[in-house]
Amino acid sequence: MTNSERIRKFYQELHKKFGPQGWWPAETAFECILGAVLTQSTSWKNVEKAIDNLRRGNLISVEGINSITADELALLIRPSGYYNQKAIKIKNFISFLVNEFSGSLDSMFATEKSHLRKKLLSIKGIGPETADSIMLYAGGIPVFVVDTYTWRVLLRHGLVPEVTSYDEIQEIFTDSLQEDAGMFNEYHALLVRLAKDHCRKNNPVCAGCPLEYDPHTV
DNA sequence: CTCCCGATTA
DNA sequence: TAATCCGGAG
What we know:
By secondary structure, the protein is mostly helical. The chain has two domains: 3-22 and 146-197; 29-138, Hypothetical protein, domain 2 (Endonuclease III, domain 1). The protein is 60% helix and 0% strand. It is built from twelve helices and no strands. The longest helix is centred in the middle third of the chain and has 19 residues, at 83-101. The model has no long low-confidence stretch (mean pLDDT 96). It binds a DNA duplex through residues 23, 35-37, 39-47, 49, 78-86, 89, 124-130, 133, 145, 147-150, 188-189, 191-192, 195-196, 200-202.
């Protein structure tokens, strides 16, 4: 079986085992973007607390974020950790959105894919994973999102060396799969699910792993 | 104590 | 490449 075939088989097995994950858990595209920043190196549970605070204040909008200072924002998103930095990051994104697209997400997402990615990456605080998450989960643009979990799973299956760049890992998926936003959405979410349930950092639970070696199918 | 859907700076 | 940001859950 080629590596591309394995990438495709992984998806089948994950979907068979876990079913649809239904990401992203956000009410609006704007909230999704805030969540993408807030969840950087942070558990989603803590991000929810931060988002709840923003919801309570009716602050999940360009006008909402603009109505408070970075320090006030930091206080509200405190449960998500790295709150001072993340407050700046969110402010940076808002400035970008207002300056480049008059505050319109529709205009932003209408931008050509690779061009939009470069523009998002130019924002201080938006790296490759956050940029791709924003495009896929807030904009529905077919971009495969890579994260630490993705790398760990591929590493443990011997599909990549320990030192592999974000873009290289992303290529492995885009070169093996059809360009389908709905499937990219599910695949990434399923990898996160897999990493939480089985492919954990320190104490992996290989028993029952949907991607475990199966002598009947190899 | 470690880890969590990272990114930047030195 | 390493240090830094950082609260919350297990």
